[in-house]
Write a structure and sequence with these properties.
The complex is a heterodimer of chains A (112) and B (114).
Chain A lengths: L3 E3 L3 E5 L4 E7 L6 E7 L6 E7 L4 E4 L2 E6 L4 E6 L8 E8 L7 E2 L3 E6 L1
Chain B lengths: L3 E4 L2 E4 L5 E7 L5 E8 L3 E10 L2 E4 L6 E3 L9 E3 L8 E8 L9 E2 L3 E5 L1
Classes of the chains: A mainly beta (112), B mainly beta (114).
């Protein structure tokens, strides 16, 4: 079965630095990969989607890369702020009437 | 305001009792989902529905039941057969399943056992 690993349960980073979160998967590559943000006690909120034929996608301070050779996606937050502190989830989308498969998430703490 | 509404926010279940979690959406989405979230476990799929009057089991369907009688509504019943029901339950919807569409989530229901 498909296995997804997000680099660590928790990541602490200093304000102003770039946070980099990793999502690795085994077996076959998804058609798309999505990233979500979840605050404590709330539902996840969609951030970005990247297709398998796209190398990189940007949205404001966020950047996502997708390397199907390494079977890995990297999620970057530049100039991080304490308000960026949350859990970030990656999700694999295989298309073809298959629901998303979520990773366990990485809890990011940005320290002022 | 368009979105997904889950109720109640907090729910307590007595042993042997069935409880139902409500999920309503006004986004005109065909697909709806129920996920369970435990600390350190991420999101696990319980059931999903691609269309009215149809639904499929997810990875952890045992001890749960659902119905999809209306497009807007996808209630989840946690039955007495679910021996470890304490968790955070999330409902979501999307235009379709496996169509590279993003999911919209509700604010969740925290279920605890008395």
């Amino acid at each position: 079965s498909q296995k997804i690993e997000q680099n660590s349960e928790a990541l602490n980073i200093q304000e102003g630095k770039t946070a980099t979160l990793t999502c690795n998967y085994t077996n076959y590559s998804p058609a798309y990969l999505q990233w979500y943000r979840q605050d404590p006690g709330r539902g996840p909120v969609f951030l970005l989607l990247i297709r398998e034929n796209e190398k990189e996608k940007r949205k404001e301070r966020l950047k996502v890369t997708f390397d199907t050779t390494l079977k890995q996606s990297l999620f970057h937050i530049t100039a991080s702020q304490p308000a960026d502190s949350a859990t970030y989830l990656c999700a694999l989308d295989y298309a073809g009437n298959t629901p998303l498969v979520f990773g366990k998430g990485t809890r990011l703490s940005v320290i002022a | 305001d368009g979105g997904i509404t889950q109720s109640p926010k907090y729910l307590f279940r007595k042993e042997g009792q069935n409880v139902t979690l409500s999920c309503e959406q006004n986004l005109n989405h065909d697909a709806m989902y129920w996920y369970r979230q435990d600390p350190g476990q991420g999101l696990r799929l319980i059931y999903y529905s691609q269309i009215v009057n149809d639904f499929q089991k997810g990875d952890i369907a045992e001890g749960y039941s659902v119905s999809r009688e209306k497009k807007e509504s996808f209630p989840l019943t946690v039955t007495s057969a679910q021996k470890n029901p304490t968790a955070f339950y999330l409902c979501a919807s999307s235009l379709g399943v496996g169509t590279n569409e993003k999911l919209f989530f509700g604010s969740g229901t925290q279920l605890s056992v008395l």
